[in-house]
């Protein structure tokens, strides 16, 4: 820089040289200011990284999208498919191995959404098939808001209860999101059960719902068995009864609200009978009738 | 999109002239301009051959189209609702309306959380436009459904559902990384299944 200045000083008239010098000084000053700003910004950024989040920021974090990003980031279709498949085989405790520490919230949201659709549709189909053909069937739209409130309510409340109880009884290595996740995957078996329950036969419906209850409770208990054995030993029955009890209540609610209508009067013949053309023999019903 | 035959304004006074002209044009002209825009977008979204520029037209999103189709679907289904359901007409209308907007919101949110980089309203706009085939099937079934057996009713339902799902799946799948494609596509499928089921049932 200085050599240029001296070279210019020698060749050009003094005014021009002064102008050039002033310009160069101005440029240097501007560069200095800009770099100062840049350095200030960098320092601020580092400070922000090192600073603890303030109380306010921690409070409204769950309302931002970024808070939930980690739960959707490490997913692959393959892992979720494996987890869904594992939920149908409750005797092998492989869920936490497949999950490998990355709890996801994709499963809970979409399993419950599918369940709402399945239950509302199946409840209406079973009601439609169970009513006699001479009675008009009224599609019940109220199943959808009811099913949504019920399922999305238990999606959070029951895992929260299980989490609190296990934490109080001494469980370690528990995370609320992980409990929500595994509870949702435990409910996957109810989706095919709903499809089966759209047939209005009461024995079939009770059988399928009891299978769903046993499957989901076993899945939860078997996968948490390690945790229960190690940390909660003596009081693990409390957790087991809590899980099983919640599942029983849920499935009773399903039966009593969504799948309430079954064959009421075998003589008139429901639409299901007409569909499958079941032949009622006179002997059976005469005998049945005489007994009453 | 310049549907009027006016030149672009060269200076401020010309722009003011243009504004007064907009105010002075007849209401039918304004409405027709908006309707033409919606029809153009609709053809673009639903007929895959029109998409030569890989979906760049979708950047000009608008929510009028989705609103019109949502209202049309909700009104069609609630007109028929009185005779066949136990809920009142307003219940059905409310459920469909909320379902479409909350459903589009949740599906878009899902795609964003899975790592897709797309503007929120662009995706809602696309999902709303793809509700149009479901609208068609709802109208068909509302008018002729009572005369047809159930199996015949299923045919237009399945065709329109496949059409809606196919139009939006292409866009949605392109947003997320390849190992998460099916995860982003399934909610779209569930959304249109829900809506098709309604139009079949009522």
TrEMBL record, chain A:
InterPro entries: Yip1_dom (IPR006977), Yip5/YIPF1/YIPF2 (IPR039765). The keyword Transmembrane applies. One of its GO terms (cellular component) is Golgi apparatus. Pfam families: Yip1. Its main location: Golgi. The chain crosses the membrane at residues 109-131, 143-166, 178-202, 208-226, 238-263. One of its GO terms (biological process) is vesicle-mediated transport. Keywords: Membrane, Transmembrane, Transmembrane helix. The keyword Transmembrane helix applies. It is a multi-pass membrane protein. GO terms for molecular function: small GTPase binding. Residues 90-225 form the Yip1 domain. It is found in: Golgi apparatus membrane; Membrane. Belongs to the YIP1 family. This is Protein YIPF.
TrEMBL record, chain B:
Keywords: Membrane, Transmembrane, Transmembrane helix. It holds the Pfam family Yip1. One of its GO terms (cellular component) is Golgi membrane. It is found in: Golgi apparatus membrane; Membrane. It is a multi-pass membrane protein. GO terms for biological process: endoplasmic reticulum to Golgi vesicle-mediated transport. The chain crosses the membrane at residues 63-81, 93-114, 126-148, 154-176, 183-201. Residues 59-198 form the Yip1 domain. InterPro entries: Yip1/4-like, Yip1_dom. Belongs to the YIP1 family. This is Protein YIPF. The lineage of its organism: Eukaryota, Sar, Alveolata, Ciliophora, Intramacronucleata.
